[in-house]
Amino acid sequence: IHDGRLVVADAWHHRILVWDTVPQADDVAPDLVLGQPDASSVQENRGGECSASTFYWPFGIALVGSTFWVADTGNRRLLGWSNGIPDPDQPADIVLGQPDPSAREENRGGAAGPASFRWPHDITGNEDLMLVADAGDHRILGWSPPPTADRDADLVLGQADFTTADEWPYGPHTNDRFRF
């Protein structure tokens, strides 16, 4: 719930649903549908190319500061709207993890690094720090302060460095390695 609005990531229908108030009854249609042209459409990337206003498996959502973030897992990126929850069809102001809004390759088409994701799943943060769970690379990336444009992460948790993407527990067990 963000500012009294119920916001739900409907990953398998490639959309974000927004109710202006929390519904008090069953079968209440959302007030906004983000990522699809209407409430009955369910194709990834609206059945077309990847863009700054489409989703492919949007799993995580967060409001970090004034920016509304979506972990657009299937497109291997985060989309951010700097003025909060956007209007339908409004392109994101920030595309994090890809060189442009139409790109969608795992780790930007290369190895894991500080500016890429394999499967970003969830987001949390505050005015000073944003953390993203990159499940595909078995790590958490952090930005301090939260990014206002595509840039390298400042922090990596769960791996020895930004370029390692080992899946644990198939390696040595240590307290600083993750498997998720």
- Beta percentage is 25-35%
Strand element count: 11
Low-confidence stretches: none
Through-space gap between termini: 26 Å
Structural class: mainly beta
* Helical content band: under 10%
- Compute the number of structural domains: 1
Task: Output the radius of gyration.
Answer: 16 Å
Main β-sheet description: 4 strands, antiparallel
Tell me the series of helices and strands, N- to C-terminal: EEEEEEEEEEE
CATH structural class: Mainly Beta
Say what the CATH topology is: Neuraminidase
How does this model look, in words?
By secondary structure, the chain is mostly beta strands. The chain has a single domain, classed as TolB, C-terminal domain (Neuraminidase, 6 Propeller), CATH 2.120.10. It has strands at 6-10, 15-19, 32-34, 58-64, 67-72, 77-81, 94-96, 120-125, 130-134, 139-143, 155-157. The chain has a 4-stranded antiparallel beta sheet with strand order 4-5-6-7, with no helix packed on it. Strands 8-9-10-11 form a 4-stranded antiparallel beta sheet, with no helix packed on it. The protein has a 3-stranded antiparallel beta sheet with strand order 1-2-3, with no helix packed on it. β1 and β2 (15-19) form a beta hairpin. The chain is globular. The relative contact order is 0.13.
Task: Give the SSE map.
Elements: E1 6-10, E2 15-19, E3 32-34, E4 58-64, E5 67-72, E6 77-81, E7 94-96, E8 120-125, E9 130-134, E10 139-143, E11 155-157
Antiparallel strand pairs: 1-2, 2-3, 4-5, 5-6, 6-7, 8-9, 9-10, 10-11
